């Protein structure tokens, strides 16, 4: 009895991984990952020196020597810096044109409200507790409000044609509608490629290969230049709508391949189990197959979303004023041409905020769905 008691109280040996985790202090981590050998240590020191030097230079340029505000439109003080400091005064001077383009100045509260509505929709849609059928109603109502605000012509708001739209609202409209309609299209096409009907499978393969085989710019040119030639006389579809259709087709083709990869990752036994339960085709895929397939491809899906959001800047080729185009146009003014870097940094931070939010959300979603 005494020997059993002693054995039960004896400490168990700690596995190597547990010892490594227990001793995973910063110094041990640095030694194991950054200073494990002489070449690694040299590379680490060189990169650290370059990063510190670049960081100090950026702080001096962007903060220490920068000019944040000018009393008027005279940029002599900024030009006197000769590139040694940033002229952030260009942002408060041009931010309204950068964000909203040529939208009437006294009505720019409307695209500002549209931007806030889009952000609110994204935040609400990212919370699982709101994943209910009423969320679809909320989206439809919000999109109606967005259309009323942007076009106007009712409730005492003057009408604003789409030619005057620009900036961040246009980028959000193209990206949101492109993904909102492209994702269901991609799911349908991915299911079509798995169909046992040769005609449907061939049409889906043809669509995917045709769209993915040409650059997005060519699709935009086709939508802007060639498509109106095939329309009857007197029928003219707005340029923004044509670009939106091109984005939907483009997103649908790429998302279809991502979803198809997820479908192939689902074990065959899941299909057989759903068939054994007597589920119909749509119930089998909607309740059993697609949830697992999409869970498998969350990282590539979000990667496609981020790339698609940035690709909206290509609409400048067909004369649509998205966020990047309005930023380029804002510095046409000769007085501010020398300060394009500051404008691009400002626009880059906006893109980074949206892309980083999508990346972090996908990481959290993947962690929630990971098996425990």
Write structural notes for this entry.
69% of the residues lie in helices and 0% in strands. By secondary structure, the protein is mainly alpha-helical. The protein has one domain: MetI-like (MetI-like fold, Orthogonal Bundle), CATH 1.10.3720.10. The longest helix has 30 residues, at 340-369. The chain is globular and about 75 Å long. The chain starts with a helix and ends with a helix.
Number of helices: 17
Question: So what's the overall shape?
Answer: globular
Task: Return Rg in Å.
Answer: 27 Å
Overall average pLDDT? 87
Give the total of beta strands.
0
- Fourth-level CATH superfamily: MetI-like
| Order of helix and strand elements from N to C terminus | HHHHHHHHHHHHHHHHH
What amount of the residues lies in strands? under 5%
Please tell me the CATH architecture by its name: Orthogonal Bundle
Distance between the amino and carboxyl termini: 39 Å
Helix content: 55-70%
Show unreliable segments.
1-12, 17-23
Within the CATH hierarchy, at the fold level, what is the topology? MetI-like fold
Q: Please tell me the total number of domains.
A: 1
Write down the CATH class.
Mainly Alpha
Given helix and strand content, the structural type is mainly alpha
User: Oligomeric form of this entry?
Assistant: single chain
């Amino acid at each position: 009895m005494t020997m059993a008691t002693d054995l039960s109280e004896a400490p168990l040996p700690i596995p190597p991984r547990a010892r490594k985790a227990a001793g995973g202090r910063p110094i041990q981590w640095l030694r194991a990952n950054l200073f494990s050998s002489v070449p690694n240590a040299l590379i680490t020191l060189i990169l650290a020196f370059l990063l510190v030097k670049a960081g100090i230079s950026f702080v001096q340029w962007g903060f220490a020597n920068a000019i944040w505000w000018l009393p008027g439109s005279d940029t002599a003080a900024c030009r006197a810096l000769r590139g040694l400091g940033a002229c952030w005064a260009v942002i408060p001077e041009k931010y309204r044109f950068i964000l909203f383009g040529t939208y009437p100045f006294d009505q720019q509260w409307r695209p500002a409200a549209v931007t806030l509505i889009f952000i609110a929709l994204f935040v609400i849609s990212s919370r699982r507790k709101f994943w209910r059928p009423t969320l679809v109603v909320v989206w439809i109502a919000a999109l109606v409000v967005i259309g009323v605000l942007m076009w106007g012509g009712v409730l005492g708001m003057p009408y604003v044609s789409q030619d005057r739209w620009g900036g961040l609202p246009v980028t959000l409209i193209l990206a949101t509608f492109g993904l909102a309609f492209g994702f269901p299209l991609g799911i349908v096409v991915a299911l079509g490629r798995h169909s046992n009907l040769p005609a449907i499978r061939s049409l889906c393969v043809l669509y995917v290969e045709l769209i993915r085989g040409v650059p997005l710019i060519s699709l935009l040119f086709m939508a802007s230049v060639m498509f109106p030639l095939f329309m009857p006389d007197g029928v003219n579809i707005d340029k923004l709508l044509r670009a939106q259709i091109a984005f939907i087709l483009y997103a649908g083709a790429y998302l279809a391949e991502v979803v198809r990869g997820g479908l192939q990752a689902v074990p065959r036994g899941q299909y057989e189990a759903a068939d054994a339960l007597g589920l119909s085709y749509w119930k089998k895929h909607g309740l059993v197959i697609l949830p697992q397939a999409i869970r498998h491809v969350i990282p590539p899906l979000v990667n496609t979303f981020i790339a698609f959001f940035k690709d909206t800047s290509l609409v400048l080729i067909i004369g649509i004023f998205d966020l990047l185009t309005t930023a380029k146009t804002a510095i046409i003014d000769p007085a501010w041409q020398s300060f394009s870097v500051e404008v691009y940094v400002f626009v880059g931070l906006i893109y980074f905020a949206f892309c980083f939010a999508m990346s972090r959300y996908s990481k959290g979603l993947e962690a929630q769905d990971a098996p425990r």
